[in-house]
């Protein structure tokens, strides 16, 4: 699956805290299980992690592993 990426606007804000992403260490996330939807930007990994926790996005999404 191929996707293109464009540099976001200099005034783009974090989806979690509203800070300008380029004032920090930005992270771009796309949901490629949904046809690579529009990117969502976070100003850093802490905001991304908090967003994931608050939205319960990790519940039920872990891979199962068995040594067999």
List keywords for this structure.
single chain, 68 residues, little secondary structure, two-stranded antiparallel sheet, 9% strand, Homolog to small CPxCG-related zinc finger protein
Structure description:
The protein has a domain at 21-53. 15% of the residues lie in helices and 9% in strands. The protein contains one helix and two strands, in the order ββα. The chain has one helix at residues 45-54; strands spanning 27-29, 40-42. The chain is globular, with a radius of gyration of 14 Å. This is Homolog to small CPxCG-related zinc finger protein.
Short characterization:
By secondary structure, the protein is mostly loops. It is built from 1 helix and 2 strands, in the order ββα. The chain has a domain at 21-53.
Gyration radius (Cα, Å) is 14 Å
The count of helical stretches stands at 1
Largest sheet: 2 strands, antiparallel
Oligomerization: single chain
One letter per element, helices H and strands E, the order comes to EEH
| Helical coverage, percent range | 10-25%
Strand order across the largest sheet: 1-2
The helix-and-strand class reads little secondary structure
Query: Any idea what the shape is?
Result: globular
Strand percent estimate: 5-15%
- Mean pLDDT over all positions: 84
Q: Unreliable runs, pLDDT <50, ≥5 residues? A: none
Report, as a whole number of angstroms, the end-to-end distance.
31 Å
What's the total number of strands? 2
